[in-house]
Amino acid sequence: RKLNYVERSNYSNDDTSDDSDDQYDPVDHEIAQMRQESILKKIQRLNYEDEDKLLHTTAFAKLFEFVKDYDVVAKTSSSNTSPVRPRSEDGKSGSAADKGEWKYRGSGYVKFIKCMEVGYNCGMIRAELTKNGTLETLMCHELTDEEVGPMPSKQGKAYTWRCKDWAYRTATRTFAIRFDDDMDALKWKEELEQSKRNNRCVRTRRMGPSVLDISAEVDDFCSTFQNLSTSVSSPSRKGSGK
Predict the structure, then answer these.
(1) CA angle at residue 162 from 158 to 168, to 5 degrees?
(2) For the chain, what percentages of helix, strand and coil (3-state, to nearest 5) are there?
(3) CB-side exposure of 12: number of CA atoms within 13 Å?
(4) Which of 107, 175, 181, 242 has the most CB atoms lying inside 10 A of its own CB?
């Protein structure tokens, strides 16, 4: 009886394996493989191995955005749904800054990445923050002359700035970042200022040499023209003196 039971169980397992082979769909398998490849490409892009160079990764931070008229993330306009503010003493309904609100965007690590791809942005350093546990990029921009100021109410743990960002679409956005420790915030500020100096130098070198070369060519042409004019006029003066 035990032998017969073993033979029957083996036979039933063979039947299920045949059924699983019959249910195999090459289209579903190809779709699953394409999804895996797309995820791997996103992960490789986050590792910055091909065309970018990762310079520094900050401590864990929380990102906020001040939304006034249009929410880039939600793709909605907040002008019609803005709450009514109390009137001030002069009768006005409030300042322009009171019409917006701070929105929490997510948490993650800010990465400073240097672009190594040959082109206009080669050598530029951008600040990028990817939401923790996902592949969603919350902010991505390059700073040059933008002012980054501390938030007095956060005791040196938070900074705010306004810049042109292209995480979701190219738009001017107002950010605020907050760290758990003031030293982590100070380290982030130092890295940010260093990236701003680098970006200014890259932009200056990109525009400066062409202007300098043109001015040098103009100076050479003027000096050459002046030498030719003096050499041509000198024989006539000698002839007039005889």
Answers:
(1) 100
(2) 45, 30, 25
(3) 6
(4) 175
